[in-house]
From TrEMBL:
Keyword annotations from UniProtKB, A to Z: DNA-binding, Transcription, Transcription regulation
Source domain of life: Bacteria
Annotated organism of origin: Rhizobium puerariae
Protein name: ArsR/SmtB family transcription factor
Classification lineage: Bacteria, Pseudomonadati, Pseudomonadota, Alphaproteobacteria, Hyphomicrobiales
InterPro entries: ArsR-like_HTH, HTH_ArsR_DNA-bd_dom, Metal_resp_trans_reg, WH-like_DNA-bd_sf, WH_DNA-bd_sf
Length: 106
């Protein structure tokens, strides 16, 4: 993952409503949720949900699939794993990591 893509995804998740939408989809698992079910769970207006979903889809964090007349939303787990990996990839490369016990003793 490159820095620009990570920044766009983190920016999308920087909104409380979008983060709530995303976490709800992550919890739903690979089956995802229909848009109507997602709206019911979150209690937000359809237009607001649509706006936030479009942002998450544009950054690759969420996918949508039409099944007849229903739109199913899913968290894009490979994208999530890539973003998390990007964040922790170089942990402690320039310095030794300390454990919580070592930090508490300091």
């Amino acid at each position: 993952m490159n820095l620009e893509q990570a920044a766009k995804q983190l920016e999308a998740l920087g909104n409380a409503t979008r983060l709530q939408v995303y976490r709800t989809l992550v919890r739903a698992g690979k089956a995802g949720l229909p848009v109507g079910g997602l709206q019911e769970k979150l209690g937000i207006p359809a237009s607001t949900l649509s706006h936030h979903l479009q942002r998450l889809i544009a950054t690759g964090l969420v996918t949508q699939e039409r099944q007849a007349t229903t739109l199913i939303c899913r968290a894009n787990y490979p994208a999530m794993e890539s973003l998390v990996g990007f964040l922790v990839d170089e942990c402690c490369v320039d310095a030794a990591c300390t454990t919580n016990e070592e930090e508490a003793a300091a």
